[in-house]
Automatic annotation (TrEMBL):
Residues 1-52 form the ClpX-type ZB domain. Gene3D superfamilies: ClpX chaperone, C4-type zinc finger domain. It holds the Pfam family zf-C4_ClpX. InterPro entries: Znf_CLPX-like, Znf_CppX_C4, Znf_CppX_C4_sf. Belongs to the ClpX chaperone family. Zn(2+) binds at C11, C14, C33, C36. It comes from Nonomuraea insulae. This is ClpX C4-type zinc finger protein. The keyword Zinc applies. SMART domains: zf-C4_ClpX (SM00994). Keywords: Chaperone, Metal-binding, Zinc.
């Protein structure tokens, strides 16, 4: 793995670099830092203690338009990170000579669509 991989890994939630937090845990195409895990724990605990049964509004309902606009690049960066991770996984399958047909079927697309999307990376 290249030495600069730690600079490329970012938390999918807060978008902090792995070098800016204590720990980053990887999932399938996503990452979460220890700080966001802590925040998730706090949110879950607060909800457990709350007696309110009111439905939760989507996050954007409590945000201003400027806050939403500021958040869009973070969402796009997470999408890029997930796409890059998917390309790595497909590339690895191709090194094992897994067919485009099997890869496409796994992703819910045709063999041709899989080849067109990932051919340059394998």
């Amino acid at each position: 793995m290249p030495d600069d991989w730690k600079d490329k890994i970012r938390c999918s939630f807060c978008h902090k670099k792995s070098t800016d937090v204590s720990k980053v845990i990887a999932g399938p195409g996503v990452h979460i830092c220890n700080e966001c895990i802590g925040l998730c724990g706090e949110i879950l605990e607060a909800e457990k203690l709350a007696e309110s049964t009111e439905p939760r509004l989507p996050a954007w309902e409590s945000m201003s338009e400027d806050q939403i606009l500021d958040h869009l690049p973070k969402i796009a960066a997470v999408q890029t990170q997930v796409d890059d991770n998917l390309r790595d996984w497909v590339g690895h399958l191709r090194t094992r000579e897994v067919s485009w047909e099997r890869i496409g079927a796994s992703l819910g697309m045709t063999r041709q669509s899989a080849w067109e999307r990932f051919r340059n990376d394998s």
